[in-house]
Amino acid sequence: MKKKKSFSLKRLLASLLIYLELLVMLAIVVYPILWLVGAAFSPLRGAPGSALQDGLNAIPRDFTLANFRRLFDDHNFSTWYRNTLTIAVLTMIGTVLVHTFMGFIFARLQFKGRKIGLLSIMILQMFPSFLALTAIWVIFLTFGLLDNIYALVLLYVTGGIPFSVWLVRGYMLNIPKSLDEAAYLDGATKLQVFTKVIFPLSKPIIAFIAFSSFISPWMDWIFPNMVLRSSANHTLAMGLFELADVASHSYDITAFTAAALIVGVPIAVIYFVFQRYLLTGLTAGANKGE
Question: What is the distance between the alpha carbons of residues 110 and 118, in angstroms, rounded to a whole number?
């Protein structure tokens, strides 16, 4: 009996510690979100330090929508949003079309240089894209692509090849090749096998790379800041940086939080809606295959 009680007590203490840790982590994660929402609807404005000293907290004393109106009246938020949305949608479409087709080629077709191509893709995954900043800038300058939002689409689509193609290939290797053979016996071409057999069966991994490629432009500041020059081509990340840039004396912390809320809510909703497909695609695509 003593052993059972001791064992139960240990399990109880272990469970309490786990729940306590979860509560602490929940507080760490939730409080900044509550503070963000409260600041977005607060009438205060100015630097982060002065706003905090004036009583900016998670629950504002007076709710207002002035911060959201100021984004569109005093700042170019609509332009930033339109540019970012255009880049994100085109990047998602380009990524899905190019990366899935390349994954199909490496997973289902045999050709000379296949192993060298796979090895190159694997090696490129080891190096961050920031190492190529200078080379990218010189190439864009040479071809007149600077200050062009479509150049960013090209950069994101090609830059994501090493990661996405490897995942797509790993997922497609799990699809039985007997389906391809049956389609070939019925007279299907390789393109028809891809579009009518493999592509529809790859929805989980396609959902994952589509979501990943869609959210990347919303959060990226380095590449847009390198490529884009005119204010008419600025993205959300560049605009939000200006709103929170204390050194430039143009900061507006409550407008920044309002913009962050507008940007974050749609992405969070999309994530929760497609969460099942995202997790399935990521775990299935992790298979390296042969």
Answer: 12
Cβ-count burial of 67 within 10 angstroms (0-12 exposed, 13-18 middle, 19+ buried)?
buried
- Alpha-carbon distance 83 to 150, whole Å? 10
Q: How many CA atoms lie within 13 A of 174 on its CB side?
A: 16
Q: Which residues of 235-257 are buried (b: 16+ CB within 10 A; e: fewer)?
A: bbbbbbbbbbeeeeeebbbbbbb
SS3 of residue 27 by DSSP: helix
Q: What does the block give as tokens for 97?
A: 């079309």
Check: CB of residue 19 under 8 Å from CB of residue 36: no
CB 91 within 8 A of CB 157: yes
Per-residue b/e over 71-107, b at no fewer than 16 CB within 10 Å? beeebbbebbbebbbbbbebbbebbbebbbbbbbbbb
Type of residue found at 113 = G
Cα separation, 225 vs 237, whole angstroms:
9
CB atoms within 10 A of CB 202: 24
| Residues counted in the chain | 290
Query: What token pair was written down for 96?
Result: 């899905």
pLDDT in tens, the chain (290 residues): 555 555 577 788 888 888 898 899 888 888 888 888 888 887 765 544 444 444 455 566 677 888 888 888 888 899 999 999 999 999 999 999 999 999 999 988 888 888 888 888 888 777 777 788 888 889 999 998 899 999 999 999 998 888 889 889 988 988 888 888 898 988 888 899 999 989 988 888 898 899 889 988 888 888 999 999 888 899 998 988 887 765 555 567 788 888 888 888 878 887 887 777 666 655 554 454 44
